[in-house]
């Protein structure tokens, strides 16, 4: 067995919580070292659609703190 396979086996033996923390650490290290990836055509289109909807009716916006509170109540 090579070193990479051994490392993967060790990672897979970690608890789910430990693996999630490891993935978060890896993701944070990637984000700290690089530019964000470019948006896809679909992502760019969705952002444009949402911006236009906001400009048509800004009163329909839900504040971020309300969204996060609801998420916390539902899944926290």
Which key phrases capture this entry?
single chain, about 80 residues, mainly alpha
Low-pLDDT segments: none
The radius of gyration over CA amounts to 20 Å
Amino- and carboxy-terminal Cα gap: 41 Å
What structural class should be given to the helix and strand makeup?
Answer: mainly alpha
Q: Which descriptor suits the 3D outline?
A: elongated
How many DSSP H or I helices?
Answer: 4
Query: Regarding quaternary structure, how should these chains be classified?
Result: single chain
- Give the count of structural domains: 2
Question: How would you state the average pLDDT, rounded?
Answer: 92
The total of beta strands comes to 0
What is the strand content? Answer: under 5%
**Major sheet summary line:** none
Helix content: over 70%
Q: Helix and strand string, N-terminal first?
A: HHHH
How is this structure best described in words?
The chain folds into two domains: 31 residues; 35 residues, no CATH class. By secondary structure, it is mainly alpha-helical. It is elongated and about 60 Å long. Helices cover 74% and strands 0% of the residues.
């Amino acid at each position: 067995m090579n070193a990479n396979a051994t490392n993967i086996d060790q990672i897979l033996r970690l608890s789910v919580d430990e693996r999630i923390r490891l993935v978060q650490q890896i993701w944070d290290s990637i984000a700290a070292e690089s530019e964000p990836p470019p948006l896809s055509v679909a992502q760019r289109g969705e952002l444009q659609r949402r911006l236009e909807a906001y400009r048509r009716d800004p009163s329909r916006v839900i504040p971020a703190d309300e969204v996060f509170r609801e998420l916390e109540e539902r899944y926290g």
